[in-house]
Design brief:
Urease, subunit C, domain 1, binds zinc ion, 10 helices, globular, TIM Barrel, single chain, 2 domains, alpha/beta, about 25% helix, about 375 residues, nine-stranded parallel beta sheet
């Protein structure tokens, strides 16, 4: 048995001090004593926050690697890299590329997923794939490659149903609504997200009735909110069945909206990074889905200026929301990057919060959300102090 002492433990409903957290590979108990008799390893959190391991359900790349590359070593590098940002569960996220490229990417991800489920893996655990495209609308492709866009293909989803946890679809494209209905009926465990879409409000509402339950990066690459034409954003903000992603880097979405969105969506809001291979790297030129991107500070753009993913880290997203939504408790913000995505992708029995019986996935953070230690299933996979 192991113990964490001297931490401010961020639980689902509160942050508590003066408690000791006992765990092996799973969380066993909370105790009030500070010197647990039955622990053979005692980890001193030194007054830092003990957060649940973070869950990033939408991330393309990190440290020069990209989930669409089809390289297992690249996926391992990403898994180790994002563990330093407190992430313990993630969905490698593919772009709109050709089917052979997608299938090569799925194969590499499956291989590392199996490795990440075994003891001794030193990076964040892979929980499946997020396929952002190719079933999108060319008119809202953003930084996705237009030539590989296809109508929604239920047979492709059937074939990869064991791996795909989420996929993005534009419901207004001809034939896609029927495909959504079929996929939702046959694979209710797969989260269907609308995104890169030109749907008007009525089409978005119809999509929810057909089985859409999530919105890919709210505000970006979708119809905006107008009082006579509420669009996908209006549907996302008013429809309780929808969880919505937010890229809280203060660039994709103005920080003035963080408060409104968090108040409207509450526990249905999910912080994501949408990070590209430029994440964790210096400014310069990189690529995304086969196209060159240019990175300066927090901005990633195509040559024509189109916004192209981010360089955001998930711990920074928590910090950004915390700095801009003053009265929101830390546990509610942390939930947006842990339990809320875990529920959305159906992994919350084992992941997403610090609760007895769940996997012992934690990270230690200071007031600015700098991560100093990450623990996966009871094993330290990152420690800034050694
Ligand atoms: Zn993305």
């Amino acid at each position: 048995m192991k113990a964490i002492i001297n931490g401010k433990i961020v639980l689902e409903g509160a942050t508590v001090s003066g408690m000791t957290l006992l765990f092996d590979d799973k969380i066993q108990a909370f105790e009030t004593s500070t010197a647990p008799a039955n622990a053979d390893t005692v980890i001193d959190a030194k007054g830092r926050y003990v957060l649940p391991g973070l869950v990033d359900m939408h991330i393309h790349g990190y440290l020069g690697e990209d989930a669409s590359d089809g390289k297992a070593e690249g996926i391992r590098t990403m898994a180790r890299g994002i563990a330093k940002n407190g992430v313990t569960s993630w969905l490698p996220t593919t772009m709109t590329v050709s089917y052979p490229e997608l299938e090569a990417a799925f194969e590499a991800i499956s291989q590392v997923k199996a490795e990440s489920e075994k003891p001794g893996f030193d990076g964040a655990q892979i929980m499946g794939v997020n396929a952002e495209g190719p079933f999108i609308n060319a008119a809202r492709k953003g930084a996705q490659a237009g030539e590989h866009i296809k109508p929604c293909d239920p047979e492709f989803i059937d074939k990869h149903a064991g791996l795909i946890r989420v996929f993005t679809v534009a419901p207004e494209v001809k034939g896609n609504m029927a495909a959504i209905r079929r996929i939702h009926k046959e694979h209710p465990e797969i989260l269907i997200s609308m995104g890169h879409t030109n749907a008007i409000y009525d089409e978005a509402e119809k999509a929810v009735r057909a089985g859409v339950r999530h919105v890919t990066h709210l505000f970006n690459a979708q119809t905006g909110l107008h009082h006579r034409d509420p669009g996908v954003v209006g549907c996302a903000l008013s429809e309780n069945r929808l969880t919505t992603e937010l890229i809280a880097d203060t660039f994709h979405v103005n920080k003035a909206l963080f408060k409104m969105v968090s108040e409207l969506k509450k526990d249905k809001l999910v912080l994501i990074t949408d990070c590209t291979r430029a994440g964790g790297m210096p400014d310069g030129e990189y690529s995304l889905g086969g196209q060159p991107i240019f990175v300066k500070g927090i901005e990633c753009r195509l040559a024509d200026g189109t916004i192209a993913g981010s360089v955001l880290r998930l711990n920074e997203a928590i910090r950004n929301v915390r700095q801009n939504v003053k009265r929101l408790s830390l546990h509610k913000i942390v939930r947006m990057a842990s339990l809320n995505p875990a529920i959305a992708i159906g992994i919350d029995k084992a992941k997403g919060s610090i609760a007895v019986g769940k996997d012992a996935d934690f990270c230690f953070a200071d007031e600015d959300m700098n991560i100093s230690r990450t623990i996966l299933r009871g094993e330290t996979i990152y420690n800034a102090e050694v």
